[in-house]
Design a protein that fits this description.
By secondary structure, the protein is an alpha+beta fold. The chain has one domain. It is 32% helix and 22% strand. Helix 2 crosses helix 8.
Amino acid sequence: MLCSYGDSMKKLNSVLFAATFLLQSLTPAYANEEVFESLHDEWPEAFNKIDKLTNDGKSYLMMVASLPTPAIDIGTAESFRRTLIYVSANGGGEGVLGHVMFAWKCVTPKGVKQGMSGMTGENESQIEKMVDSGWGFNAMLSTFKDGYLQTPEMIQEEKFDDDEEGKNTFFTVGMEVSQEECMSFRQHLKDFVTHPNKPMTRFGAYGVDPAEFTGGGCIDTALTLFAKANIFPAVKEFKRYLKVNEKFLGKGKELPPHTLLPNDRALWENKPKVSFEQFIFATTWEPGPNDKSFILPTEDPELLLAFLKSIAGQMLSPESSSAAITHREFHSIQPDPSGETPFGINRRFSWSRYYKNASNEPEYQRMYNMAKQWLAQRKYNSATEIKVLNRGGGVLLKKQ
């Protein structure tokens, strides 16, 4: 789960707020009207400069991507495995998990409605516990019942107040929208929050769909809201479909709290345990010619980031730092008898570095073309470079 917080979410107020969501699953839907209103507040202090730029009586939406560091390459099942090992061995507690947030400032007949949120969950490191106990890929296919939507105050605390070393880097695209588009966005968000299925309490990436009110992750929830308001392309444009060897679907001894296994029992029933070493240090996750396989659908945060960067790159001056960020750096592993031994096991690896951009990755080129088409449709004629705390990059688009 690339946009979960794990152990970083143990602050008391966050836990209490999440507990409130879980308790409200037993109350009528109207109780969640209060939850919806709690998402409305001034943007976190780090967005003050952007806030001032949008105080012009118009409506705005904003997509904020907190960049995962080190980056994980989900281009193939094998690149996923190799970069994930690097992140686990070298990022570990010092790395930054990716996250996607969304913000709105809507001019309505009742005044300006402003807020920011993001979908999160898996607050007790359930995926890590499941991998350790033998569930293999079923850890990534499970849904977690501790999901919730962050308030602006939570975002301020978790992404800024707790980030004393300044590790979080953001790429932000803000855009002027019509009053009708902005109100449509808020209405779809309200529908998600107040739906009787309580989708905001179901955090996951497989078998859930924000558009169907069955749950969601941070990326697909944000993209669904933008797509339903006819702002961004459909969620499917940012998906990868990884073909994975079925032998890595395991069944562990026990489940962590707030965990739901996939509805398809064939994915886990009567499966053998897959140890941590078998799972992570397999020769490859990809199936051989005679192996059974399954498809792992997942939103790729790097595709979304490539789309956002392509928007900025095509609207800003080439000299701007936001337009100059045209590639992503990844680190991979390969067996090496003279290399390091991560995790204290008797296997040695060395690390290598590589880059991806539109010139060597067809999907990144597709994102560039999609951004070009999107800009042609939206007809923005004013672009201002924006940065959150002068880290990362971004662009604010306006119509004059």
